[in-house]
Amino acid sequence: MNAPSKPRARQRAPRLPADSLALALYHAAGLVAAVLEGQNLTRPLARLWQETPELSAPQRGAIQDLTYTTLRAWGYGEALLAPLLRSLPPPPIHGLLLVAATRLDQRPEQAHTVVDQAVTASGELLGGRLRGMVNGVLRNLVRRHAALQAEINSDEEARFRHPTWWLERLRARYPDRWQTVVDAANHPPPMALRANPRHVAADLLLARLEAAGIGARKHGSGALCLDRPVPVGRIPGFAEGDCSVQDPGAQRAAGWLDLAPGQRVLDACSAPGGKTAHILETADVDLVALELDPERTDRVRDNLERLGLDARLQVADCRDLAHWWDGIPFDRILADVPCSASGVVRRHPDIKWLRREEDVAGFASQQAEILDRLWQTLRPGGKMLYATCSVFEEENSAQVQQFCAGHADARVISLDGLPEQQLLPCADHDGFFYALFKKAD
Questions:
Q1: How far apart are the C-alpha atoms of 184 and 157, rounded to whole Å?
Q2: Residue at 379 is within a domain
Q3: How far apart are CA 200 and CA 300, in angstroms?
Q4: Is it the case that residue 221 has pLDDT exceeding 90?
Q5: Within 10 A of 401 (CB to CB), how many other CB atoms are there?
Q6: CATH number for position 204
Q7: Domain, as residue range, for 213
């Protein structure tokens, strides 16, 4: 990957037909190029939507699908292209080649169209001076595709579409299940809803979904899992706050907090607000929600307003007690801490390529500091739920052991009969970890 650089200024609007594959390839290439340069996908994607209000919903869907599919398969795409490139081209062209290579792999019957449209898109990049190179590389890829696939089968990073260090960690922790975890991460995620019980019962929402032609089923967590993702605009009652989009694994948190009316509750790392809202939907509590990033705090506020819920939102680092804590202890704390996000990479496929192995230790250190600080704000007899969206042991089980070893007044409380819950990504839900601590009276 190239070294991170400053985001490029927006180029002129491409002279490409609306609804053409060339336009989708062009925009997807720009997003992949941003990740190649070390940027997190979230910001360039938001910037693209802001700068291109003329794009229709189908166009946006096509661009996002091309981008996410390419990033999920990045290691594979790089390996396919490597024998065809004398040197790495500039990021915009590199991104276009990766997107086109992924599309060719998915739709080999459309090879002629994909190559033609990619070459057309390349005419809008770097003054069109690398059109010939794009044409030659992609035509060569079509001719040699089967042989190139056979050559890279021994390359695990290409075969499993994950960095080598990531695969090694999964093998060590889940020797019998690591390939299942990898396979889940390489496919699009499911879509699930959480009914807002202050507005509508889950069974009634399920019936309304079926009446709207949206297939769904009830998950054991109470979530409603859709047969296939749909735009939120199609979901009956979404705009009115009847439901939220939330993974079934994430919906476990509110129930495991053991909430009751009147409790003083802290959501220490609240954005984007799904668990914050679920807490308020579950019980009439006095909720303080912290978030370090002002923009992400706005997302929490927007979610609560749509659902008709209210919390005391504060922009603050949860570790800086002097800045935000009034000294009154909490009955319950949700510590949904920053982590590697290794359990949700199918939703954020840039993560597995931008992360470095040493980042995991950095997150673990930050998590330990957060737990130590928050523990000071919990009343005797209170409970703190530790949560991550990680599948790495260092952030999960090892973190729990370390915390208990350093806090004699902490006791682990079982969750559904287990001392901790490690949910691995599968067809129904993403990867999450939970552990519940009780403070001695």
A1: 16
A2: yes
A3: 21
A4: no
A5: 14
A6: 3.30.70.1170
A7: 192-245
Number of domains in the chain: 3
Active-site residue, from 225, 389, 404, 426: 389
CATH number at residue 126: 1.10.940.10
Name which residue leads in pLDDT, 18 or 168: 168
The percentage of the chain sitting over the pLDDT mark of 90, rounded to a whole number, equals 94
Residue type, 15: R
Rounded to 5 degrees, φ, ψ at 81 are: -80, -25
Orientation of helix 357-375 relative to helix 164-173, angle to 10°: 60
Domain-located, residue 34: yes
* Known catalytic residue at 404: no
Res 11: pLDDT: 55
For residue 198, give Cα distances in angstroms to 256, 263, 319.
19, 18, 33
- Give residue 1's pLDDT: 44
- Strand intervals (E) in 155-242: 192-195, 216-218, 224-226
Q: Is the dihedral of CA 355, 357, 360, 363 positive or negative?
A: negative
Structure confidence by residue, pLDDT tens digits, 362-384: 999 999 999 999 999 999 999 99
End residue of a domain, out of 210, 228, 245: 245
Q: How confident is the model at residue 154 (pLDDT cuts 50, 70, 90)?
A: confident
Residue 2 pLDDT class (50, 70, 90 cuts): very low
Shared-domain flag, residues 426 and 278: yes
Q: What angle, rounded to 10 degrees, do the helices at 21-36 and 91-106 form?
A: 120
From residue 253, give the alpha-carbon distance in Å to each of 79, 287, 297: 40, 15, 20
